[in-house]
Design a protein that fits this description.
Strands 3-2-4-1-5-6-7-8 form an 8-stranded mixed β-sheet, sandwiched between helices. It folds into 3 domains: 3-86, Up-down Bundle (Four Helix Bundle (Hemerythrin (Met), subunit A)), CATH 1.20.120.140; 101-297, 3-Layer(aba) Sandwich (Rossmann fold), CATH 3.40.50; 315-441, 434 Repressor (Amino-terminal Domain) (Orthogonal Bundle). α3 (45-59) packs antiparallel against α5. A hairpin with a 7-residue loop joins β7 (270-274) and β8 (282-284). It is of the alpha/beta class. It is built from 21 helices and 8 strands. It is flat and about 70 Å long. The longest helix is centred in the C-terminal third of the chain and has 32 residues, at 410-441. The protein is 57% helix and 8% strand. The chain has helices at residues 3-17, 24-40, 45-59, 62-65, 70-86, 113-127, 144-155, 168-181, 199-212, 227-239, 257-266, 287-294, 300-310, 313-324, 330-342, 346-350, 360-365, 370-381, 385-389, 396-406, 410-441; strands at 101-106, 132-136, 158-159, 186-190, 216-222, 244-248, 270-274, 282-284.
């Protein structure tokens, strides 16, 4: 997400930092380019106009024009205004009142509403230790209620038993009654969607809302629909009332205009981002982190959060110690590759690392992707336990056997072994240097070691 916008803004703002002093003409020219970049990213025109006006006002201040590093100060102003546009403070779900707290899930058909309901339920259960009940109110779409039931089984979260012929309002009331009598903290109500907004849909959602008085009404909308997502949000806000937005499929939306326009156009905060199809791929929306991503500063907090969900802390510390002592084996490498795959799309993860945008061509040439990681893991798993412990045993015939067993070529096996040796040497050297020396000796952006490409 934001890849195109990030690349363009990065180029524009880098141009400003290369100038020792900035004139009003320099800033005007840069703001014209920023305006075009935002419009091409599908950001709504009124939002763009307001954003450019605020940035320009701040950038033309005497403190900036007379500063020793005016370019850096302009970047900070752009960052701060992006945060303001997106919503300065994260707004968590209001589910901590007297139980059961009702959360109403609304949106059009196909927006990912049912899957998002299960994702939020899993997050509330895992991180907030809430007892959650899910209920499907969608009696129109074939097997919609069964879909939520299956998702409940996958996440081990209770779903309200299905009573065929029951109407949506009655289902909602029954769910709240079960929530009260059986001690649930949160009741998630997954309402029906339509292919387009109509009065019947709005009336039904309004009736359900009156019956349960939800603490949150979350609109789930597809980021890939761009400005259509903003229009849908505006309609729901006016006709039903929404307290928050969940943007889904942002991993497929390279422009990001919907996210940038949503808060300013509707006044409703974005609360979650659906970053993938898996049930744990739901991120809390944080304007500071999103602004950092747009400006190429990465999202280290998000990366750490993603890692903490799939990596055991003690295992990670033990693996790090082995790596720094040069005791890292191919079995350990296979475990690390497996954990990396669990964290999600590799390109998305790379974008969360500060400075990676500036070496994107090197990354592209290295052919680093999820399929390459899977192939490397398959190669290691095709080895015997002794071979993984001592890769010096891998003569020509063994490498042919491993290649055949993993569906790889002998050249790919050789490249993996070479990468493993280089990694061991580099990390063993870093371990000897100590913590301070290690950080000082690690390559920075633009200084990546010439590792053999993943193919």
């Amino acid at each position: 997400m934001f890849e195109g916008l990030s690349n363009k803004l990065g180029g524009i703002l880098d141009g400003l930092t290369k100038k020792g002093r900035l004139s009003e003409t320099d800033i005007d020219a840069a703001m014209r380019e920023v305006r075009v970049a935002l419009l091409e990213a599908d950001v709504a025109l009124p939002v763009v106009k307001d954003f450019i006006a605020r940035v320009k006002q701040g950038a033309l201040g005497e403190d900036v024009l007379r500063s020793v590093t005016p370019g850096q100060m302009v970047i900070k102003i752009v960052h701060d205004e992006l945060v303001e546009m997106l919503g300065a403070e994260p707004e968590p779900l209001r589910v901590h009142g007297n139980p059961p707290n009702a959360v109403l899930m609304v949106g059009l058909q196909g927006s990912g509403k049912t899957t998002t309901t299960a994702k939020i339920a899993k997050r509330l259960t895992t991180f907030d230790k809430k007892k959650v009940l899910m209920a499907s109110l969608d009696i129109y779409r074939p097997a919609a209620q069964q879909q939520l039931q299956q998702l409940g089984e996958q996440t081990e979260i209770t779903t309200l038993p299905i009573v065929f012929g029951e109407r949506p309002v009655a289902i909602a009331k029954r769910a709240m009654k079960v929530g009260r009598t059986e001690g649930y903290d949160v009741v998630l109500l997954d309402t029906a969607g339509r292919l387009h907004i109509d009065q019947e849909l709005m009336d039904e959602v309004a009736d359900i809302s009156k019956a349960v008085n939800p603490g949150e009404t979350l609109l789930v909308t597809d980021a890939m629909t761009g400005q259509d997502a903003v229009n849908v949000a505006r309609e729901f806000k006016q006709k039903v009332g929404i307290s928050g937005i969940v943007l889904t499929r942002i991993d497929g939306d390279a422009r990001g205009g919907a996210a940038l326009s949503m808060r300013a156009e509707t006044g409703a905060p974005i609360k979650f981002l659906g970053v993938g199809e898996k049930l744990d791929e739901l991120d809390v929306f944080d304007a500071q982190r999103v602004a950092g991503t747009i400006l190429g500063q990465g999202d280290v907090v998000g990366l750490v959060e993603r890692a903490s969900q799939v990596i055991d802390q003690e295992d990670a510390e033990a693996a790090t110690q082995k790596l720094l002592k040069g005791q890292f084996s191919l079995s350990d490498m296979a475990d690390q590759l497996g954990q990396l795959r669990k964290m999600g799309d590799l390109k998305g993860l790379m974008g969360m690392i500060p400075g990676m945008g500036k070496i994107k061509n090197q990354i592209k040439d290295a052919n680093i992707d999820d399929s390459a990681i899977a192939r490397q893991q398959a190669i290691i798993l095709s080895m015997t336990a002794k071979e993984r412990t001592n890769h010096k045993l891998l003569n020509g015939s063994r490498r042919k056997r491993i290649a055949a067993g993993s569906g790889a070529t002998v050249q790919e096996v050789n490249r993996l072994i070479k990468q493993f040796d280089m990694m061991k040497k580099m990390m063993k050297k870093a371990g000897k240097m100590g913590k301070k020396g290690m950080m000082g000796g690690m390559p920075g952006p633009g200084q990546m070691p010439n590792l053999p490409p993943f193919r």
